[in-house]
């Protein structure tokens, strides 16, 4: 459980703790992380921590929620002025890859959540998918996307972005030493190949519908 601050100073202190916790969890992992390490990184006293969070699990869950909120905002904001669904897909994926390049902790912490906080992991993905489903439904209604199950499509599209980002943003080339800090964005040729695959999968079916032969005519 976490407690909302009542003052602007409290908000700043809480934000410093979240930022420090994000860095600590990403660098040493949940089990090696400690409240002492987090407060030292934040530059606040140990007792101050408990004004805002019950313990390590509480701040971990809050870090997951904070990362989720920020990445969804980045994607939504980027796609807001897109003229159609395909443009929205491009803008949203670019924003996602840009965010993960700047915040590689997103991948590292979310993967830890699978083991230390499954509920937070599920909530992270569900929130992203729910917004995706609504966008696909709207595009289907406007004839921009072919007839498909929007829930299946949303999970599939999120999986594409997750793994492309993991391979070309998070991972170093084989044999290269890991690099800390911001990561490179997805190479343009990889991005275009991915988008061609997605656009073909979402494109409306333009084939003429087959009609049964009229009585008295050859099939």
Automatic annotation (TrEMBL):
Keyword terms, alphabetized: DNA-binding, Transcription, Transcription regulation
Start and end residues of each HTH tetR-type domain: 11-71
Single annotated GO MF: DNA-binding transcription factor activity
Gene3D superfamilies recorded: Homeodomain-like, Tetracycline Repressor, domain 2
Residues annotated to bind DNA: 34-53
Any Pfam family hit: TetR_N
Domain of life: Bacteria
Protein name (Swiss-Prot/TrEMBL): AcrR family transcriptional regulator
């Amino acid at each position: 459980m976490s407690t909302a601050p009542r003052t602007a100073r409290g908000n700043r202190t809480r934000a410093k703790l979240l930022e420090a916790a994000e860095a600590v969890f990403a660098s040493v992992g949940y089990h090696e992380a400690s409240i002492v390490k987090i407060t030292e990184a934040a530059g606040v006293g140990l007792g101050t921590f408990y004004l805002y969070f019950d313990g390590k699990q509480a701040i971990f869950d809050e870090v997951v929620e904070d990362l989720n909120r920020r990445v969804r905002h980045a994607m939504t904001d980027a796609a807001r002025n897109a003229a159609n669904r395909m443009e929205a897909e491009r803008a949203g994926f670019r924003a996602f890859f840009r965010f993960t390049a700047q915040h590689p902790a997103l991948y590292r912490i979310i993967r830890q959540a699978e083991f230390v906080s499954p509920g937070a992991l599920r909530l992270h993905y569900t929130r992203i998918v729910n917004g995706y489903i609504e966008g696909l439904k709207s595009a289907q209604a406007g004839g921009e996307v072919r007839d498909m199950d929007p829930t299946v499509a949303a999970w599939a599209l999120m999986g594409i972005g997750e793994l492309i980002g993991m391979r070309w943003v998070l991972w170093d080339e084989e044999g290269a030493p890991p690099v800390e800090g911001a990561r490179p964005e997805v190479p343009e040729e990889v991005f275009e190949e991915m988008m061609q695959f997605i656009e073909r999968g979402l494109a409306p079916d333009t084939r003429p519908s087959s009609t049964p032969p009229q009585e008295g005519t050859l099939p």
